[in-house]
Amino acid sequence: MNDxxxxxxxxxxxxxxxxxxxxxxxxxxxxxxxxVVAAEENSIFLKCMYGSYxxxxxxxxxxxxxxxxxxxxxxxxxxxxxxxxxxxLGAVIAVKNCVELKENHIVIxxxxxxxxxxxxxxxxxxxxxxxxxxGKADDFEMEMxxxxxxxxxxxxxxxxxxxxSVANSFSDPNISIEILYSMxxxxxxxxxxxxxxxxxxxxxxxxxxxxxxxxAMPKIRLENLNGNIPDIVVDSExxxxxxxxxxxxxxxxxxxxxxxxxxxxxxxxxIAVLDLGSANGTYVNGSRLIPNQPHFISDNxxxxxxxxxxxxxxxxxxxxxxxxxxxxxxxxMPVEREIRREEKRTKLLMVHxxxxxxxxxxxxxxxxxxxxxxxxxxxxxxTSSYQSFNNLLQDKVRxxxxxxxxxxxxxDLNGYLGHAAFDYIPEIRRNGLSxxxxxxxxxxxxxxxxxxxxxRYDLVxxxxxxxxxNLNRYLIEKSDQVIMVTKQSGIEYGGTVRFAEMIRNxxxxxxxxxxxDYDKYSFDASGESGGFDRVDISDYIEHFRxxxxxxxxxxxxCPELVKxxxxxxx
Length: 570
Known about the structure:
By secondary structure, this protein is an alpha/beta fold. It is 27% helix and 23% strand.
């Protein structure tokens, strides 16, 4: 519960169908937050008005046209309740992505979540006051998860197979609310962008330092370090970089770049980069930025936009001018995760199965997408002789094996790579049936070592052939981790056990055994015990419905895959 409701700072009163919070400690009112919430009354927020009620300054919440969930709950079914939960999650995500607001100022109570007549849209109650729990978003999300999971498990008329599954996902802290929202069918990017737009048209009420009108926006050069796209010249304030030429000042036509990805802005004569809620992140010197929060930059900083790196170059005259300004404290710059590239070596993950048809490629591509979304720089390589993974990718490119075999350095390889949220060597087309028509084990090993030594990626995922050859022997020994994918039948079980016994000494402690296409109602392959009693199964991944219609981005919504991704060393 929001602490401000418990410490005596406000007193709640009903006002007909509406309700009021009387302000007993008005100093805790945050005017900037109130202005945002009041200005956005027609979106996700219950209409909120500041004024006098019965002689005391108050926050008055008007509920006309809406009904609290507590009133609806006894009358609605499973699907209707799940829609309310999904819409509430979307509202929380929007608040998370607004600079001026805090998600733990949302009141978590079914009596304060309102639904429009006809079940169209949710309104949340936002309390714009200083809270003793400020800064503890994790506590808010934990309480929210408990509230909804408890209702889904214990309320008879909304309880069902779907709510049971969603409740289990809510109880898993490894599944973020963003992934939960996507799993429930929500449009994540729409809510992120909605939150980023809140309050843009109003004054924050915070005084800024006077700006020297004679200092114009300097021309900043972003020098591409990868050689894959031209340099960028930033020549205007609020310079937006993205994939869409229609809404960006500079368009980078790569799939991993979001439609609007980031912008470079002038703030009080200093220059900052802001991530605009991009899918694959914006980084400065290896640190991922929190969306829509400014990160001040300097000459020779390295900016990463999705998969492209740029060296930031300021004009000499501006460098001299910056020396006269007050320094910005480094620890005041918000980052999501700090990655010290110079201290980290690229990790190698082998995804293998003892027999074909277990779905290891589905697992490998799903992990690639999930980890890339978390800011990990991933390269996916499939080494099977006959490859067919294009069905899981948006861009269905095929290349000749001779193109990859001829690559002598990373620049050669870069020219053939495909780009999604992660990079990948496209599906390889063999020229014939002989061994010489494909890529040899030795050539694959050379390519893998070349990538590992380059330091360009955090993780290389190698999706292997279901055999033991020189390449796979190398990978078993060299990999930081091995994911062994199997199914429940006796054939797959027998092969998995033999593989486990064979590598026991070479790969001790680094193999993760996963059952794919798992059916909890089927009897496991090992017979008497009804389980895989000779190998330690770590994860169970249930059947993917409509697999032929899925892309690897859809696989990111699978809670079992998300949990597995959390075990990967990066």
